[in-house]
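#onboarding

Welcome to the new folks! Below is a worked example of what a typical request in this channel looks like: someone posts a single protein sequence, and someone else replies with the predicted structure as tokens. Don't worry about understanding the tokens yet, we'll cover that in week two.

Example request:
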Amino acid sequence: MNDKLRAFSGQIVAVVIALAIGAVIIMLIDESPTKVFMTLMRGAFGDQAKIAGTLLQTTPILICGIAACIGLRGGMFNVGIEGQLFLGGFAAAWVGFAMPLPPGLHVVVAMTVAVIAGAAWVSIPAFFRTRYGTNEVVSTILSNYVAVLLTSYLTIFLFKRPGGWSETPPILATAYLPELFAFSRLNWGLIIGLALALFVAWFFRSTAKGYSISMVGSAPKFAEYGGIDVKRQGFMVLLASGAVGGLAGGIETLGVHHRFMEGFAPGFGFDGLIAALLANGSPIGTIVTALFFGALRNGSLLLETDTNASREIITVIQALIILSVSAQVLMKRRGDSTAGERRWKF
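Example response:
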């Protein structure tokens, strides 16, 4: 419990440091940090429509964060969630406009294909990681650019809506993910994301398979000595992570845009990864951190109209959070290494 409390307090410190440095930057542009942060709060939670907008922004970040948590628990750093989201979003759109099906079944099939697309896309770096020991951080982050450009090519040259923007034809109404409220595009994707977070938390905490995955992530040598096929497990963990990333894209297409377009979900994959890191790989904690980043995204819409600050200050704050969390991880690893050396000496 002390370790969990220490980890939680460390994440709080990371956010506080990021907000403090962000406040200094805001003052450098002759604006009041208090005004900027209050504007963010008003933009995120000012009324029911703004709250719904914040939850709408939170949904893809949460699901992408769960995808990252699955990878982190298995010792795999999946930085390609953004690309898996794009592939899943395009696959769901294709099923939505090209495959007429009855209501209900259409949504299920479209989301299933999105899941398969995300898993298939990450299977390439997963194979090279398992077979040749390549670094999955490098291969997955590079796969993002290929995925974005590939979906752009498919959208513009093969499936572009006649006379429209760089987007596919709209999906059929039978493929719409139902909305939760009439005044917002907030949809059942939020419920799916929350249910998925609870399921993944239960899976890692209460099942033998979840325990073995966590063991591989925390002590791979020990797990290998215990008879666990570490390489195969790593491959399956990346597949599961990519599948959830594809699901995030499918929900964004079916529930929000009802079509696929260039740049339809910029940055959600990376925000989800940051949310998972800030939550220390906890699916339940990711609900809170995803809400935090969703509030920053939605609240920033008011910044450029009510203050002198740019919306890019949110990107700066996110980058500062990454630096703070990364510094903590490095210090923890160095401390663990030093403790290990002391144990061997004595």
